[in-house]
Amino acid sequence: MTALLIICFCLILGSLGNPQFPEQEKDPKFWNAWAQRTLKNALTLQELNKNKAKNLILFLGDGMGIPTVTAARILKGQLNGQSGEETQLEMDKFPFVSLSKTYNTNAQVPDSAGTATAYLCGVKANEGTLGVSAAAVRSQCNTTQGNEVTSILKWAKDAGKSVGIVTTTRVNHATPSAAYAHCVDRDWYSDNEMPVEALQAGCKDIARQLFENIPNIDVIMGGGRKYMFPKNMSDVEYPNILKHSGTRKDGRNLVQEWVDRMKDKKNHYVWNKTQLLSLNPNNVDYLLGLFEPGDMMYDLERNTESDPSLTEMVDVAIKILKKNPSGFYLLVEGEFEASVMVQLHICSSGPSFFSGRNVLSLIQVTALVSADCRFPQPYKQHICTMAEPSPLNEQWAVRSVP
Ligand SMILES: *[C@@H]1O[C@H](CO)[C@@H](O)[C@H](O)[C@H]1NC(C)=O
Ligand SMILES: *[C@@H]1O[C@H](CO)[C@@H](O)[C@H](O)[C@H]1NC(C)=O
Ligand SMILES: *[C@@H]1O[C@H](CO)[C@@H](O)[C@H](O)[C@H]1NC(C)=O
Fold first, then answer.
1. Using a 6 Å cutoff on CB, does residue 231 contact ligand 2?
2. Where are the active-site residues found (predicted)?
3. What is the mean pLDDT for each group of 10 consecutive residues in the chain (402 residues)?
């Protein structure tokens, strides 16, 4: 009996400790080779459009697993007075659908940081880490160096394309961060959230990396204003609310630095909807829009006077990015309220589900995709929508214009 208890105890301890995974999973080449093999096999199955895309837009619905998509489809139909299931979302009309696995190397139910590293950088990674391989350990600054992996946003920039990030979360939140940062901890939003030892060891906060890693990201829009401003500097929109004040202990004003650095270019910093919509995209080459101190509001709670919708942000972003004759890459994230688990609860709790904010946001995203299908030719583009992080699988719908 005692032996049995000890065994159980060891098993529990083992499962609480750091999960082990094969050494080869720390090597980016392992994932790249696997992806290439999978792709090669897929290409032998049927004649696919093998033209090279000039532009790529990735719409990422955080929490948008297959059950959520199904729920959104039904809701969209019911809002139109139909029974729902027969409805088509815009992405249902895409010619290709595929599934991809974006799990974390050390966790079955993954988080946005590791999954974003998987689909943006092509390398699976540990939970909570951004733009680093699985050789990096969460929160251990000294495991960063040498383990950095780069993202499709950087590859696009290096190829001479314009690049953009639009999100309804803060711009230094896990998903967008994996596009530009190399950070062992997704919570290191500014130096205020970092341990002193990590700062002393030379690790940089994510907000700083947004401006320092990939020079001149053409379009950046979302929330996260407070992480850019000196500690205690009052917020422009909520001057009397202390928790919205600047957080930076290094006293830097990253927005002012950006404005100064870009002053010979056609650059604009905006913090509200009026400013955004009054811009003429033809006269803007670089845009920084920070519309809330933290994450932006869910669409149903949004102040429609002061904050732009995701659709409005994407519309402006595309107009700016498409001016580049070499093409562009745009990452768009719509944050749903919570994960699939919460949504399944909402589903099973009956009619209240139909007020689900997640699902309405999803409809907004699909409306976006539809809006984008009308995007003027001759721009060749691939539009992908995908879900993350959903424990079971990720769905991709791909529409490519030949
Ligand atoms: C890295 O830092 C951790 C503490 O965060 C320490 O335990 C470990 O020994 C360090 N490793 C190296 C190789 O310096
Ligand atoms: C910010 O304000 C807090 C609370 O008033 C104060 O304790 C802290 O010293 C201030 N920090 C700086 C850098 O001004
Ligand atoms: C938007 O910003 C401009 C410029 O700072 C300001 O004049 C205007 O009052 C702001 N509008 C709203 C709705 O906050």
1. yes
2. 112 (phosphoserine intermediate)
3. 44 52 92 91 78 87 74 80 83 77 85 93 96 98 98 97 96 97 98 98 98 96 98 98 98 98 95 98 97 88 90 93 96 63 32 41 53 35 44 42 40
**CB-defined site of ligand 1, < 6 Å:** 140, 142
For ligand 1, atom 14, name the residue with the nearest CA: 142
Give the nearest ligand 3 atom to 237 CA: 14
The CATH H-level (homologous superfamily) assignment of domain 57-400 is Alkaline Phosphatase, subunit A (3.40.720.10)
Stated pTM of the model: 0.82
Catalytic residue list: 112
Alpha carbon of 125 to ligand 1 centroid (Å): 19
- Give the number of the atom of ligand 2 that is nearest the alpha carbon of residue 249: 13
Known binding residues for Zn(2+): 62
Q: Could you state, in order of their start, the residue ranges of all structural domains in the chain?
A: 57-400
Confirm or reject: Cβ of 250 under 6 Å from ligand 2. no
